[in-house]
Design goal:
It is built from 8 helices and no strands.
């Protein structure tokens, strides 16, 4: 929960990837809160009891959502998918903006790599560019964790994909902050002083 909150503020891409990792951790613990408490929550013993309870509740809620949404074996939670789709829609918006030439070029550099990835999907499911990019980054992360050999072509493709995703993440968070600021402005042009 604490890591998720921090990542959500800093990088939408890292946040989504972290949430995928959380889903996998819940699955690895067989959606069993007793096991999750033992293997994950117990590591937060140095923080205040109310924070520990908030962390436990967060993991418990996610675990229950995974049960309800039938994500015990694979797939992503609806809240994660909705955010990923929102990022995709923002990506489409950026592709139409004359002021976003650098972003558009970064995406064009990664586009052939994303098309190759789409062609490798076994069940033929169509994924949008953002989901493909996140899958590529996440799979690369898993390969690194397993100390698997990674070909230079794969590393180069991942660098192109990561570059465009970093630009997207930065622009997305900036747009979110601008929207928050706009929403907190009264009609007379002054900022709300609510806390």
């Amino acid at each position: 929960m604490i890591i998720a909150q921090q990542k959500r503020k800093e990088s939408i891409v890292e946040y989504l990837l972290y949430m995928w990792q959380v889903e996998d951790l819940i699955r690895a613990n067989h959606l069993d809160m007793t096991q999750i408490e033992k293997t994950i929550i117990s590591k937060y013993s140095a923080i205040a009891p109310e924070q520990q309870q908030a962390i436990r509740d967060w993991w418990d809620n996610l675990t229950e959502m995974m049960r309800i949404e039938k994500k015990e074996e694979n797939g992503h939670l609806q809240i994660t998918k909705a955010l990923m789709d929102d990022v995709y829609n923002y990506h489409l918006y950026l592709l139409t903006q004359n002021t976003e030439i650098a972003y558009q070029n970064a995406f064009q550099n990664a586009w052939p790599d994303l098309n190759v990835l789409q062609g490798k999907i076994k069940n033929g499911d169509k994924m949008h560019h953002i989901e493909l990019a996140l899958n590529a980054i996440y799979d690369y992360f898993l390969l690194k964790l397993q100390n698997k050999t990674i070909l230079a072509d794969t590393t180069n493709a991942l660098m192109r994909i990561s570059h465009f995703m970093a630009m997207l993440s930065s622009r997305y968070l900036k747009a979110e902050k601008e929207l928050e600021k706009e929403l907190s402005t009264n009609t007379d042009g002054t900022l709300n002083q609510t806390k």
